[in-house]
Amino acid sequence: MTSKLKTDVLETVSGSGTIALTNQLSGMTSASVPQLTAAQMPVGSVLQVKTQNYIPSGNSSTTSTSYVNTGLVMTITPTSTNSKILVIATVGSQSQASVTNNLAVFRDSTQVTEPLNVATSSFYKGPLSLQAEDSPSSTSELTYRIKAKVSAGTFYYHHSAMQNAITLMEIKG
Questions:
Q1: How far is CA 25 from the centre of its chain?
Q2: What is the DSSP string of 50-105?
Q3: Alpha carbon distance 123, 170 (integer Å)
Q4: Is the per-residue pLDDT at 15 higher than 60?
């Protein structure tokens, strides 16, 4: 049920005058509505979101016991040194039995998460998800990468039948 209130004139509380409403809202546009700046937003507000989906044409793999780039990479320029960056990534993967695979989030050359260790006792195929909250204390452009390594054997990432994605969110600190 909807209600409508129709009136041409409102009387003030004191009864000493009236407020005419005729055409008071005409000409109002979204441009005339004040926009909040990042500085005016409350702590915890999402200031910007960047995302990239990646569906590879084939599998990528590594046999390296040192971290290698997976190709999931994205840049963001924080608006404040107090901002936090929330990183969310999904990597389609496949691994051999009895192999420990590791995925981690890096900002530039700095590792910002503990490795996501995926130890399998049998063949594994499926998506792996990582999340990280970083406090870079910077307003310079930052590059976030998902890197992978193995303890032994082969780790297949970016499986061609699965979607891979990385999302960066700037959160006001």
A1: 37
A2: EEEEE--SS-EEE--SS-EEEEEEEEE--S-TT-EEEEEEEEEEEE-TTEEEEEEE
A3: 37
A4: yes
Ramachandran assignment for 93, one of left (phi > 0), alpha (psi -120 to 50 degrees), beta (any other) = beta
Between 3.40.50.880, 3.60.10.10, 2.60.40.1930, 2.60.120.1340, what CATH number should domain 42-171 receive?
Answer: 2.60.120.1340
Q: What whole-number distance in Å separates Cα of residue 123 and Cα of residue 115? A: 20
The pLDDT of residue 4 is 73
Rounded to an integer, what distance in angstroms lies between the CA atom of residue 123 and that of residue 33?
57
Nearest of 102, 108, 137 to residue 120 by alpha carbon:
102
